[in-house]
Structure of Precorrin-6A reductase:
Amino acid sequence: MAVTLIFGGTSEGRLAAEKEKDALVCVATEYGASLLPPGTNCHIGRLDRNEMLEFIRTLRPGRVIDATHPYAVKATDNIRACCTELDIPYERISRPSVSGSWSTLVRHAKSAEHAAHLLTETGGNILLTTGSQTLSTYAATIPAERLWVRVLPTRAALEFCELAGIHPSHIIAMQGPFSPELNGALYDHFNIHVMVTKDSGSAGGLEEKVLPALAREMDVIVIDRPDANQGDPQQ
């Protein structure tokens, strides 16, 4: 039986790896590999389109499961294109979006740049929960003393924080998702007035972040998911 190739690094990818008896999981980092089920066969390292094409051609999997992050549009484009070229079955697993009654109570942004612009219209401390790679976008617009960030506890994430000029005392390095109680405690402890998040769905703890923020009458900005057909947004 041909192997199933899974592009993961998400909770959906880990679940797919648990279900497939003969699978190879591709993750970008050692940290992503550490979150996989014990004994999972994995490839560690980022692949550009040409590298991905050669990797899949050599492996010749029976099918490819794309369980990458909803915002990893370029990765999805590359995986789908490679499977089409090699005539290999492609399956996209995407976490469902969460749209509760609170959806009309938050502000929606199309990108990190748009969110940074919206932040200029707010006051008080800001908590960014949108990852480390776009921190410089916010730091270029918002004074450093207003910015708190929650990022993964990895060297790469901390390096992005340093490059963006984030104060060390404003860095919360933790692996989520988190409970509403913990999120609320962080908002209170750091006197947060504005929280920025991606639409990470239930698996990413979206409501657990949004609801305690609204209960505290905080401003909330949600960066909507990119259209998979509109190119590669910033991750």
Summary: Residues 73-86 form the longest helix (14 residues). The chain has two domains: 4-92, 101-223. Residues 145 and 167 are 8 Å apart (CA to CA). Confidence is low (pLDDT under 50) at residues 229-235.
